[in-house]
Amino acid sequence: MAITKTVYLKKESFHMSFKILTSELLVEFTLKVKDSPLNKLNGIPRLELPVDYFQFYKSVSSVYSSKIEGEEIDFDSYFKHRFMNVTFKVDYTRKADDLYAAYDYIDSHPLTLDHVKEAHGILAANLLPELHLGRIRTNPMFVINNNDQIEYVAAAPNQVATELGKLFDDIEDLLSRELNSYEVFYYASLIHLVFVKIHPFQDGNGRTARLIEKWFLLVKLGEIANSIQLEKNYYTKLSDYYRNIKKLGLEYETLDYRKSLDFLLMTVQILDEK
């Protein structure tokens, strides 16, 4: 006989008051996930590695977040560069090194807007001129896909600072609350999605959004969150990643976050695959 498992959440979890985030899909998300994400994460066997466990996974994050943006670097080479002192041309590893430094940065800094700006300055050091590092854009932004078509239109210049302020007010609220692990994974992915839709920087928005997702998980779950390979997962499911972002709509003003469940489930579903 089939056993039905009931998942219990605090009633107030479904009625949080936000400025830009939403708890509307949290019940459906929880029912899809079923078992505790934290229990799943703790149940994954820890690999025996010849290098520091968490530095290894920071390298994985750095490489695959770079590869999503089209950087031609493979993990085997970067592993040799990072841990075995193998020398490559500087341009080959530079942007991944910048991302690695940003993942180091988030270990010791609170998740705030000012620190996100600083982290952007680190990870985009070889993407943008200095005057754009950590600076909120004041120009229109269109995201173009590989077919040279507009994938979506980001927040208008006069909206960016306000929308970003709303997001980080919501993040501050979440960081002050005791969340269960369903909520942690749900909001981490949603923060990623909202940030990338605002697209506040000239470049490096995707890298920063994925960094923020990991950052939120680290704050709420501790250093074990380093081993959640969300960046590699997004890369290996790149078509799904972009398709799920696109589902919300083309124009920032008409985004429909009720269509975001498939995106929100992408990271937590890694735990089942492991």
CATH class type: Mainly Alpha
According to CATH, the fold-level topology is: Fic-like fold
Counting DSSP E segments of at least 2 residues, the number of strands comes to: 2
Please give the count of helices: 13
Low-confidence stretches: 1-8
Question: What is this structure, in a nutshell?
Answer:
The chain is an all-alpha fold.
Written account of the structure:
- It is a single chain.
- This protein has 274 residues and is mostly helical.
- The protein has a single domain (24-273), classed as Fic-like fold.
- 54% of the residues lie in helices and 3% in strands.
- It has a two-stranded antiparallel ribbon.
- It is globular and about 50 Å long.
- The model is unreliable at 1-8 (pLDDT under 50).
Which features characterize this protein?
274 residues; mainly alpha; Fic-like fold; two-stranded antiparallel ribbon; 54% helix; globular
Protein topology:
Blueprint: H1 26-33, H2 37-42, H3 53-68, H4 75-83, H5 90-106, H6 113-123, E1 142-144, E2 150-153, H7 157-175, H8 181-198, H9 205-221, H10 230-236, H11 238-246, H12 261-268, H13 270-273
Antiparallel strand pairs: 1-2
